[in-house]
Structure formats: structure tokens, C-alpha cells
């Protein structure tokens, strides 16, 4: 069993922890120098030594670890993890019984009471994502607990940490039987080819499920659709299935082309009728303007930070300009799907970026629909940063 280290929380923030704030922030700690080994169990106390919470030490983003319980008698062991997993699975029963969607999030880190650990479900297979060396020290207990509370065909993992905070490349298979890839999962009836054993990404970002469904059901019919930063083309696929006249997918990554062709193909769509371009999105905007191309719908879902040979893109600095580029090639009454997964600002600020773009271009717009994370991506109300996804359907004119 892991030994516990008492660590003092300063008076400024102790009330936050008493209320349930889950991230152990460096600036909250009076004596961070005593922390040596990631994975150590931390007992958070105030300056008088009164118990506040228990958690673990694991360096991740801006944090030094996560609070796991506010019960002093809890022991952080396999049984504790089993209870957390069983509760999380119970909350998602409606997903498990829906044959139209066979890929979803089962355990969403601090939203389900154990920050740093994510568990996703892909048609019988479970994928664990570890976000710090600290949380990875619980690996054996988590795997044993998961096998006790769920029927697992096989378990894969992604180690999303190393000393530089990068993903660690390896085979990723952990337990059970190996999958045959691509594994074809369903999302609202749409086929998706996923790989659990091939690099950091699986081929689909599960948090955009509701957005993709809205595009397919309500927005795509008879439209000419541009999908920028298109990755494996999931937005393009749902647009085509929703009756789009044509889709154009643009991404700088070389493999985006073959991956997008694969996603069209597993849905029986002739990819040769769609445009799939490997190029810098900003160069494409210039090209589209030069050729006077216009789209009924433009999808903007950039990474929070991206770098190409000529451009560096950071959401908080550059989204307004990106939006202006999109407005210039969108038809009157067209729709821009503006999306960001940046946790560093909230919806209000994001709406400000959009508003600024239209003001600078003296354009009119209305927000017709907005989305945050779907229900399987459970968030904690005390930790607003956890609800990172912001998507606006913006209508021009």
C-alpha cells in the first residue's frame, strides 16, 4: 500500500478544496518541495493540520495531481477504483444498450472522480489514457478493477506523458484479446474506422458526437461543405450522409488523405466525388479567395495550437483571424461551425472572438445553436475548465 504524505494547503484556497475543487494546483501548496515520487498519496491539510481531502501526486498540465476523496477514512486501493468505475459505468447504461452508438466515454477523469485517467469504450474494447506518471502507477489496480466491473474483450492504453509531456509510442495492447484493426464502430448509425494500436489518436474525437449528428440531421442537405483541419474527415462523412452536394476536406497531415478515404469507404460513399486536399488551411483560404470559391457551410475545428512551415496558430490569439478567413468564403445565409477544445477560456470569451471577426468585417450574424461536451463526458461543476468544448453554429447575414 502507498504511504501518505501530508501537504499543507494555503488559506487563500482551502475553502475551494472544501467545496470540491479537484485539481491540486502548485500555487495552492505551502510545501511542494517535499514531493518526490509521482503516484504518492497526498493528504491535504490546512495550516492547522485539519484534514481537507486526499489525492495523488502526478504532474499534468498546470497541476500537481488530483483530489480523489474528501473522506479521511478512504483508502486509495483497487476496491476504491472499482467503486469509481462501477459508478461511472452505471451512469452510462443508456449508451451500452444503444446499438446505434458503440463508441463513447466511460470514465472522464475528474468528472468521474479520478483526474488523470480517461477510459473510452469501442465496441467491447476499452482504451485507457494515462495523463501523468503519477496516475500510471495505479495501472495494475485500474486494469484489475475494470476487468472486475466490465465485460472487456480487450484493453488498450495510451500513455499521454513523458518527460516532455509527449505521447509515448508503443503497441498499446494491455490485456484480453487483441483487436483486429480497423475496428468499425458506430456513432448515431454512422460507421467509423478506429485504431487502438496506432499512435496517439484513434481516428475519431468522441466529444464531437452531438455536433456531427446535428450536421447530418439538420444542416448538410443540399449544401456545399468545407471541412478545415479535417483530420480523418468525420465531419465530411456526416455531411455527405446528410445529403451534402459536395464536401471538401483540408488538412496539412499527409495521412489525413488516406484516413479520410477510409472513413468515406466504410460508409459506402464514393470518395472520388469528394475533394480531399493535403495542404495548409491558411493557404487553402488564399486559394479559395483567388478562385472565388464560396461554401454554404464551413467547419472550423482547429487544434488549440498548431504549427506549419509558415504559420503558427494559437486559439486564444488567432481564432478571430481564422473566423474572418472563413467568413470571406461563406455564402450569404451560410453557416460556419466554429469549434474549439481549448480549456484556457470559456464560452463567453469564445463568443467574443466570433463577434470581433464580424465587427471588423462589418458583417451581421446570428448564433443558431451551441454545444458543449456530450453527456458521457461528465464534468464537475467545481471545475469549469473540465468542460472545454465550445461549438457555435453561426449563420451569416
From TrEMBL:
Keywords for the protein's UniProt record, in alphabetical order: Methyltransferase, S-adenosyl-L-methionine, Transferase
Domain RlmI-like PUA: 7-70
Biological processes annotated in GO: methylation
Domain S-adenosylmethionine-dependent methyltransferase, residue spans: 173-347
Matches recorded under SUPFAM superfamilies: PUA domain-like, S-adenosyl-L-methionine-dependent methyltransferases
GO molecular function, one term: methyltransferase activity
InterPro entries in the cross-refs: PUA-like_sf, PUA_sf, RlmI-like_PUA, SAM-dep_methyl-trfase, SAM-dependent_MTases_sf
PANTHER family: RIBOSOMAL RNA LARGE SUBUNIT METHYLTRANSFERASE YWBD-RELATED, SAM-DEPENDENT METHYLTRANSFERASE
Protein name, as recorded: 50S rRNA methyltransferase
Organism expressing this protein natively: Planococcus antarcticus DSM 14505
Amino acid at each position: 500500500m502507498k504511504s501518505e504524505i501530508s501537504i499543507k494547503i494555503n488559506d487563500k484556497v482551502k475553502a475551494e478544496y472544501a467545496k470540491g475543487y479537484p485539481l491540486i494546483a502548485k500555487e495552492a501548496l505551502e510545501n511542494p518541495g517535499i514531493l518526490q515520487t509521482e503516484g504518492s498519496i497526498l493528504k491535504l491539510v490546512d495550516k492547522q493540520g485539519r484534514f481537507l481531502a486526499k489525492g495523488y501526486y502526478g504532474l499534468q498540465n498546470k497541476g500537481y495531481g488530483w483530489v480523489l476523496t474528501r473522506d479521511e477514512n478512504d483508502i486509495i486501493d483497487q476496491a476504491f477504483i472499482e467503486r469509481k468505475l462501477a459508478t461511472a459505468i452505471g451512469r452510462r447504461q443508456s449508451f451500452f444498450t444503444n446499438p446505434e452508438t458503440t463508441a463513447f466515454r466511460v470514465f472522464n477523469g475528474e468528472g468521474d472522480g479520478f483526474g488523470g485517467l480517461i477510459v473510452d469504450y469501442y465496441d467491447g474494447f476499452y482504451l485507457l489514457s494515462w495523463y501523468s506518471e503519477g496516475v500510471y502507477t495505479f495501472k495494475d489496480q485500474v486494469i484489475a478493477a475494470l476487468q472486475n466491473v466490465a465485460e472487456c474483450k480487450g484493453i488498450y492504453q495510451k500513455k499521454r506523458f513523458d518527460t516532455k509531456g509527449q505521447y509515448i509510442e508503443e503497441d498499446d495492447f494491455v490485456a484480453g484479446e487483441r483487436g483486429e484493426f480497423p475496428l468499425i464502430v458506430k456513432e448515431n448509425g454512422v460507421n467509423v474506422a478506429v485504431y487502438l494500436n496506432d499512435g496517439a489518436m484513434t481516428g475519431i474525437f468522441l466529444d464531437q458526437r452531438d455536433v456531427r449528428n446535428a450536421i447530418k440531421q439538420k444542416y448538410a442537405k443540399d449544401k456545399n461543405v468545407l471541412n478545415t483541419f479535417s483530420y480523418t474527415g468525420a465531419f465530411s462523412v456526416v455531411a455527405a450522409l446528410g445529403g451534402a452536394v459536395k464536401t471538401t476536406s483540408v488538412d496539412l497531415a499527409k495521412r489525413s488523405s488516406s484516413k479520410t478515404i477510409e472513413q468515406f469507404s466504410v460508409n459506402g460513399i464514393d470518395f472520388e466525388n469528394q475533394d480531399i486536399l493535403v495542404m495548409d488551411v491558411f493557404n487553402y483560404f488564399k486559394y479559395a479567395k483567388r478562385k472565388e470559391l464560396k461554401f454554404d457551410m464551413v467547419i472550423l475545428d482547429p487544434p488549440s495550437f498548431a504549427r506549419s512551415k509558415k504559420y503558427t496558430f494559437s486559439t486564444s490569439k488567432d481564432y478571430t483571424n481564422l473566423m474572418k478567413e472563413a467568413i470571406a468564403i461563406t455564402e450569404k445565409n451560410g453557416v460556419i461551425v466554429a469549434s474549439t477544445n481549448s480549456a484556457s477560456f470559456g464560452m463567453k470569451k469564445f463568443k467574443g472572438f466570433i463577434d470581433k471577426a464580424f465587427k471588423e468585417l462589418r458583417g451581421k450574424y446570428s448564433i443558431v445553436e451551441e454545444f458543449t461536451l456530450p453527456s458521457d463526458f461528465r464534468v464537475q461543476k467545481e471545475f469549469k475548465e473540465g468542460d472545454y468544448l465550445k461549438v457555435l453554429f453561426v449563420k451569416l447575414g
